[in-house]
Amino acid sequence: MRLWSLHPSLLDRQGLVAGWREALLAQAVLKGRTRGYTRHPQLQRFRESADPAGAVADYLHGLYEEAVVRGYRFDASRISVQDTTTGTAGNRALTVTTGQLQFEWEHLQSKLALRSPERHRTGPVPDPVPVHPLFRVVPGPVADWERP
Q1: Is 1 among the domain residues?
Q2: Does residue 120 form part of some domain?
Q3: What is this structure's pTM?
Q4: Spatial CA neighbour of 128 closest among 120, 118, 136
Q5: 3-state secondary structure of 135
Q6: Is 2 domain-assigned?
Q7: Helices 13-30 and 98-115, interaxial angle, to 10°?
Q8: Which element (helix H / strand E) includes 96?
Q9: Nearest-5° Cα angle at 132, 128 to 138
Q10: Environment class of residue 27 by beta-carbon count within 10 Å: exposed (0-12), middle (13-18) or buried (19+)?
Q11: How many CA atoms lie within 13 A of 114 on its CB side?
Q12: Structural domain total, the chain
């Protein structure tokens, strides 16, 4: 399971579709609808939120909005919480550290180099790294829950 902190526009087709599926699985886990993946480390930051189900719904909406821009047909009715407020102004905004973003950027670029060379970027990590609208950036190292 990979729930990217990076902005969905940075993902290739495979990454966006996989992210949608994995975030739907995360939603099911956080709502107690499945017994699998309940201890997955990427869910920690959602669980630490005051509203885990709302936070994952906001995350899904960010992916959905990118899918619409690309002309993909994701089913928004699969998002359990429809009343969402995303981004740093939203009351469910989560934090992501600069170290985590750099780690994710490098991880994504290694994936893109193999499967979507047209999206692969070389050179330094952009400053600032574009982030998913759910997150606000704070200084810090790679997250404790990340598995390098």
Answers
A1: no
A2: yes
A3: 0.89
A4: 136
A5: strand
A6: no
A7: 130
A8: strand 94-97
A9: 50
A10: buried
A11: 7
A12: 1
